[in-house]
Each structure stands twice: as C-alpha cells, then as structure tokens.
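2 proteins. here.
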Amino acid sequence: VRNGVRRAGEAARRLGPRLARTPVGRALRNGANRLRDGYRRQRDRYRSWRNQRTDRRRDRDRRKQERQHDDRLARAVQRMRPRLARLLRRVVRPAVLTAALGAMRLWYRLSRLRAEGTGLFDIKAWASPPALVIEGTTIRFEAREILQFIEELAAEIQRDRVRRRRPQPHGRSNADDEKDEFSLTDQAPAAGTMADLMGRHEESRPFPEPTQGMRDGRPVTTPGMSSFTWGGLVTVLKNFGGRNLFIEGWGAFRSTKYKKMAAQERGEGNLVQLGDDLRRIFQGRPTRRPENDAVVRKGRFLVALTSYIEARRDPTARVYAALMVERIVTASARNDANAAAAAIEDFPMAAIGAEGASISKRAWVAGEEFEVQRAAVQAQAAAERAQINQAQSSGNITADEARERRKAVTRERSRKLTAIQGKQPTPKDPEGKVSGEELAAREIRYLKTYLEAYLGNTLENVPPAAHKKAVLDFLRSQVMRAYRFRGQ
C-alpha cells in the first residue's frame, strides 16, 4: 500500500499542475488519498488489536502468577525438604549449608531461604510478602495494595493533624518561653491526641542536636536532651540524631525492647488494668486514675512510643498504634494479659532493625522490587569506589585517605543491604535484624489479626463486589475515630 501511494504521488507530479486539475488528475489524487486513508485505518485497527491482545495476555499472566504464587512456594518446600533432610543427616559445616541454601534459593526462584536459630534451628523459605486473606471471607488483598492504603491513611492522619487548630497553652506568657521546661498539663483540653501533644512539644522546644566527643580514646555521641513535666513527673527526651528518640522518666517501661515490655505485661497485667483509660491516654484525655499512677505512666510511655516516636521512623506506625490500643482495650475487657502482650510484641516496628527496613519496605510498596534495591546499592558502591580509585590515581588524595573512604563506602553498603535483606541471627547477635520484606509481612499479619477480630458483621448486607471497599472503609473509620478527627 505504501508503494502504491508513493507511485500515485509520483504520477501526479509527472502530470504537472495543469493536468493534475483535470478529471484524470483528480481521480488519480482521490484514489491515492482513499488508498492512504484505508491503509491508516487498517494499520490503526491492527495496532489496536495487537495492544488488546498484549493487555489480555498480561492480565492472564498476572492472574496465573497470583494463583500459582502460593503453589510455587509449597512445591518448592516439598521438593527441598527431602534434599535438606539427606544433607542434614550428615555433619555439615555452616558454610556448606549456607552454600546449599543459596543454590536452592536461586534454583527455586525464592526471595530468601535461610536457617534461623542457634543449636536447634529452622530453615525458612519466602517467595514474597504474603497477601492479606481474611479467614471466613473471600476477601484477598495483595500485599502492595493493602500496604499502599495504610501509607495513604497515615499521610491523611498527618495532614489532618496539621490542619487541626493548635490553641496556645492556657496561661502561657512570654516569660514562660524562656524556660527550659515545658508542661503538657497546661494544654487546653482540645489540644488533640497524645501524638499531637508530643509533636507540639517538639515544635515549641526543638530537640537539641547531639554532640560528638571522645571518651577513653573512642568517639562517643552525647544526645541532645529536652524535658517537660506531665502530672508532676519530669520527663526527659533524648535525641541521638536522625529519627532516633528515647524517653526517660515514665516508670518501669524504660526500655524500647518490645519483647521485654510484652513479657512484663504477661507477668503483671498492668495495661489490662487500664482498660478504657488506655484509649483516653491515646486521645489525650484525662484518665480516671491519678496522673502519677504507675500503670498510667506505663500506658503513657507505650502510647508515646508507638504513636509518636515510632511514627518519626515510619509514618505508618500512626495507623498500627491505633490498632494496638484497640487490641489492648479489648483484651482488658476479657482480662487477657496474653492478648495484650501479643498486641505489643507483634507491633510491626517492634522488630530489631525496623527503622532501616521501613525504608526498603516503602520503596517496595512504591514498586521497586527488593532485588532491584540490592542491585542499586551494589552499583552505587561500585561507582563510589571507582571515583575513589580515580582520585587516588590522579594524586588528589593519598593512599591512606583512599583506604578510609573505601572503608566508609563498604560500611554504608553493608548498612543499606542489611536494611533491605536483613541480618541472620548469630551467637553474638541472636535476634538479627528484620528485612524490608519481613517488615511488610509483619504488617500484613498485624492487619489480619485485627480485621479478623473486629470486622464483626460489617460485611452483612454488602454485595460481594463491594467487600474490599467495605473493609477499607471500616479500617479507615476505626483509625480516624481513634485520633478523634471530626466527622468520625
């Protein structure tokens, strides 16, 4: 067709301007135009058919991958189990076992495959962060889908907190601004949730930056400290730089080790005694107990830690803190200290290394696969080493400076890779560090536990096609109500 149009055009040009206006010339030109237009219509129709076929194939492949995801992991475990059993019957060195697991991971296309524990250990395999499947329903959220919703909900909470009117503390004068101490008991009743109060304190008294020094020939960091009073208690916040912030002065919960807090709750059941007062603490309302009560101090510490300090590290902690409080309040109604302890221990940011892993998790939710993240870190480190080598060869830096810079690049690469892929437990570090993928799985499990317990009859009289929207609306309403936003 293209050649025919070209030849018709050449023929019209050879006829000349006069003959082109004759019936013969017009017929020749109109025929060429019809031929060209017909060609374009057929070309566009073919392209549309080809694109539709490609889209159908892509959708079919995606649905097939979703169906086969769990089956692939199950088949891989079934095939690896006898091979590993034969290998472990013999005495194998850790290096040999690690190499075998690495080869199997590549062969079965798993994201991770590793041995966990010391002495008696388990071998665990992962294909990807799991989907959220609510038992007793046909509802299924892909991991990215539900975690993206949680990030949007956390951002909505932050936006509404910024819009919320922040009244000045009652009776505060210019002379008070010269004081180093800030009293949260002076806040007006409508000042907002406890996270609002903590944020307002930080805005009014920016945390001093940490300082670097030397002690016994070693570099040490002295945190910047800021203090305020609440219920007659002097509370000290320590700023170690970045998003790290620690609390002192609120009773027995002095450690941010969630496992220790959960163990203490199982033994003493203090938070179970709080009941609805824990929700009041979360919402910044007065409790029915004395403010200096030890149980109130523990509840205040836990709420400040999860809803404010952890949110500085990962904004989605704002959502999970509200769910945690609701789980503990419900456990209190049943006098179930174990359920309250589980709500603390399973809190997503409770995992060691969660701060770095949260960065990798958010990148994955945004669409960047974990393998791509690892490759990007390796490529960046290689490029920085090449720059150092070039600077050394050109005489811009000495050999000692180049060596120190290479060490710094290696440390930074190790830190970023640990945040992405985690760190296996060792005898020196029995807990290890959580990976971005494991952190995503922890969040899925936390949501699953909450939804299965609290959905109730929310889905009654709701068409199946609207079930997923009903679940998301329920989750949003519960979280926003916990933060006492208007209209909830």
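next one coming up
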Amino acid sequence: MNEVTVSSACKYLGVSTSGYYAWRKRQANTAQKYNDLKAVYWQHHARLGAPSLVHDMHDLGYNMSERTIGRMLKKLGLRSRIARKYKHTTDSNHRLPTAPNLLDRQFTYLDDGNLPICNNWVENQMRPWALGRKKWLFAGSLRSGQRAANIMTLIQSAKLNGLDPYAYLSDVLKKLPTHKVTQIEELLPHRWKPEPN
C-alpha cells in the first residue's frame, strides 16, 4: 500500500504545500482563540458580552473586533447573563444563619430616668479628641502615646466630675511626689478634694 505524502496530496488537490501548512496553522490558532475566549467568558462568570470581552482578548494578544467576538460567542452558544438586582425583603424565609438580636428592643433609658435618650452630650465631649487624633498620630513613640492617653483621660475625667482640669492637675502634680502609694486613689478625679486657700 502506498502512503500518501503531504506534497503529493497538495499536488493532487492543486494547492501549494506552504498554503496547506498556513491553513493548518490558522486552524490551530482558531481553536486556541475559541478556547481562550471560553476561558475569559467563564472567568467573568458569564456576565460579560462581546463589547467587554474585546479588552480581555486584546490583553491575551488577539486583535479581534467586537463583531468577531460576537460571532464566535454565537457559534459557541454563549450569551451573557445579566445579574439580577438584589431585592431586599423584610420577611426573610430562609435557613441561613442570622445575627442575634442583641438589643432585643430593651431600651434601658425607659427604666432609668437618669439615662439620657440621646448621647449628643457624650459625642460633643469626644469631638475635640476625635479632631486631634490625626495630629496626635505622631506622638514620637509608643510610650509617649500611652502617656498622652493617660493625661487626656485625667483631663476628661476631671471635666466629667465638674472640676477645673488645670486646677486639678496642678494640685495633683504638686502632691504626687510626697503622696503615699497606698492612698493614690485619693488623687483620682472623683475623689479629689481641693485644698482650702
């Protein structure tokens, strides 16, 4: 039995051997194009159509138009799926885990008349510190940042107890070197008593 060579088959069909090899290379490239297009399509979870896939195919080195990609997608039977908009429903009937209701509609200010309904006053007390945070970011070291936090805590505690922070701190800093360590709680803002003049 005689084997048919590529050159004899090309001669019989009336095509050049170089033309046959060019055609074969194109077929291989086309198959690779389709495979790459499918990969990109599924990489985006089938959400992109031809206009958006053009850029990804260009990134892979294929110079194809939107129209060509559209034809290839049609040939592969691929269509972009539009994502459904999220619809929020308050009546959720599902078995998914939900966060516990920690508040459970227990508003303690209804039981205790001393508690304020809103916390605007507390927010206003914190505002100077919140504004200064950016400036205090560079305290120098961890230890100096901790010291600044301690001083700020003493100042705010003095204000909360109705004291003049300057008078309180100057008196405490005078007493501190000679004060007994066992009685240090006496210098805290809620126990401090100013010396009579």
